[in-house]
Amino acid sequence: MMVLAALPGQLNAEPLRVGFYENPPKIFRDADGQPAGFWPEVTEAILSGLGYEFEYIDCEWEACLEMVRQGRLDLMPDVAFSEERAEQFQYINEALIYSWSTIVTSQEVEIASLADFEGKRIAVLANSIQERDLRRVLRKEGMKSKLIWTSSVQGAIDAIMVGDADMAITNTFFAVQMAEENSLRIPELPFQVNSYHYVVPPDAPRSFVQAMNLASYRQQMTFGSEFHSAEYEWISFHKAPPPRWLVTVLIVAFSVLLLSGGLILILRRVVRARTSDLATTVDALSAEMDLRKKAEKFALETQKFDAIGRLVGGVAHDFNNLLSVIMGNLELVKDQGGLDAASLKFTDQALSATKRGAKLSYDLLSFGRRAQLVPQVLRIDLVLRGVEEMLRRTLPENIFVEFTYGSHVKAVLLDQGQLENAILNLVLNARDAMPDGGKLTLSVSNLRSDQIDDGELSTDEVVVSVTDTGVGIKEDALSKVFEPFFTTKEFNKGSGMGLAMVHGFVTQSGGKIRLRSVWGQGTTVELRFPATLEIADQAAGADISAGLLGDERVLLVEDDADVRTALSQRLSTSGFRVTEARDGTEALELIKVAPEFDLLVTDQTMPGPIQGMDLAHQVREALGEIPIVILTGYGTDALDSFAGLSKFTLLNKPVIGPVLISKIRSLLDS
Description:
Elements: H1 2-6, E1 16-20, E2 28-29, E3 35-36, H2 38-50, E4 54-58, H3 61-69, E5 76-80, H4 83-86, E6 90-91, E7 97-105, E8 121-125, H5 129-141, E9 146-150, H6 153-161, E10 167-171, H7 172-182, E11 193-200, H8 206-221, H9 226-235, H10 244-336, H11 341-367, E12 376-378, H12 380-394, E13 399-405, E14 411-414, H13 416-432, E15 438-446, E16 461-468, H14 498-508, E17 512-518, E18 522-532, H15 537-540, E19 553-557, H16 561-573, E20 577-581, H17 584-593, E21 599-603, H18 612-623, E22 628-632, E23 648-652, H19 657-669
Parallel strand pairs: 1-4, 8-9, 8-10, 13-15, 19-20, 19-21, 21-22, 22-23
Antiparallel strand pairs: 2-3, 5-11, 6-11, 7-10, 7-11, 12-14, 14-18, 15-16, 16-18, 17-18
C-alpha cells in the first residue's frame, strides 16, 4: 500500500507507451476505433490507479515484441509466458488470463487426433506462443505440416475461409467467436494451456515492476474489481438464451406453482439467496481485511528495516573510513620492506583482521538493506564454505546438517551478500519445516545431465540445492509459494516474503528456481545460475600484482584527512602524481587552475553541496572522458546514476592497495 501510494510522485511527465494489437475479444478496436476488450479495461484500471497517464501504440504482434525489447514500448499486454521470452523481457509475475490454444477447421476437415496434422496446411500467428507449441508438437511426433504464418489472429481464420489453410491454431476466446460467426468446426482435441501477462523492457525500473505486480494481484483479489467485470464480459463463455417455447412452458408451470402455494417456496429461496449473498460479502470483506493486515505488517517491517539501514549505514561509513586508514598504513609499512619475520607476521595478522572488519561492515550494510548490489565473479562453493559455521549455529541441535560440494565448481556472476541472504532464507524455512528435528542437506555442483528438464537445452549452470526432511508442502499450495504474502506457516509466524525475495533475486540474476515437495516427506529447493568463464574473485584476489606502476596525474578528493593521506601515500608509492582536495568545491577550483588531470579518485559521501556523484558528472563536463574511481563506505541506490558510464568503477572502502592500483591501471590503459 505505501509503495503504491508513493509512486505517483515519481512518475515521468511523458505518458506510458502501451503496445496495442488486434486479438479480439481480449484486445481490439471497436467500430468507433476505440480500444475495447479485456486487456484495455484492466490496463485502464491498473495504470489509472497507480497515477500513470498512458497512450496506445498500434503495431503488429512481432513489431510490438521488438519495440518492447528495444525499450520503445513501456508496457505490452497479452504476452504468453515462455522461458525464451523471460530472457528478453521482464514479466509481471501475476498472470491475468489462463487460456487453451484451440484448433479451428472448416466443416470439411476432420481432426480426431494429433496424427491428422500430417500434411495439413496450418495457419498460425507468427512468433506467437501457439507457433512455439505447434512446432514442439510436430517435432515430438515426427510429423510434417506446412505452416502458414499470419500477422494477426484474424489472418489465421481468414486463411481457412479463403482456402489457403486447412486449419488454424489460435486463442480459445477468439476461436469460439469465429466458429459461431463463420460456421467453422472446433475439434474436441485439447492443445497447450498458457498463462498471459504484461511484459516490460528488460531495463524497466524495479519499482514499476513491483507496483504492477501488486496492482495486478489486488485487482484479482478484490471483490467486484474492474478485472472481474472485464473477465465476465469478455472472457467467460455465456450460455445461449433458452428457446421461446421453453420460456412459455416455464411461465405456465411457474404460474401453476404460484397458485398451489409457490409463494412460500419463493420466500424461502429469497431468504436463502440473501443469506448466501451476505455470507459471500462477509467472506470478501474478511479476505480484504486479512490482505490489508498483511500489507500493513509488511509496511511496518519495511519501515523497521529502513530505520535499521540508516543506523548501520552511518556506523559502517565511519567504520570503513577507519579501516581505510589502518589498512592503507599497514600496507605502506609492509611495502617499505626491512621487517623481520616476526614483524611481518604481526603486520599480516593486522591486515587480515582489517579485511575481516571490512567483511563485517558489508554484512551490516546487507542486513540493513543499504548495500549496493554489485555482482562479482565468485564460486558458490567457496561462499557456502565461508558461511557454513554460521548456518550450523542458526539451526537447533536436533537437526543434522550435511554440506556436499561437487568437484571443479564453475564460477558465476552474482552479488555475494544477496546470495548469502537467499541461502539463509531457505535454511530458516527448512528449520521451521522440521520442528521435531530432521536432516538438512546443502549441496553445490555443476549441472548434471540428469537434472535437465524435458525440452530444456543443456547449458553451463551451477546448482545450489537445499533439501529438508520436514513436513513438506501440500500440492494445492505449490503453485503459490513464490507469491508475495503467501505462507503455509501459522498466523504471525511468517510474513510470506521469504521465498518471494529469493525468487526475485534468482530471476534478477539470470537464474532459475525449482521447488519439489512431497507432503509428509520433505522439500527440495534448487537455485540454478548461469556459469561464467571469468576467474572467480575469491581465487584471483590474491594474485593481483602489487608492482603495477604509473606516472599519470591523479586528482584525489577525500574529506577525511587520515584517509586522504593514506590513499595519497599509496598512489605516490606506485609512481602517480597526486593532487589532493578536501571536498568537491576545492576539487573544481583545482581543475579550473590546472585542468591536466588523467584520473579522478573521489569519495562518494562528503560534506558540502557537491557529492561524489555530482563531482564526477561535473569533472566529465570539464575534462571529457576522464577515468573515474568512486570510493564508498556507505552503499546507496543513488549510485545507480552511474549505470552505463564508460571508464568508471566503484570500490567499497576499505580497498586493498593492489586492488586499487590494479583497477586504476586497468582504467587508464583501456
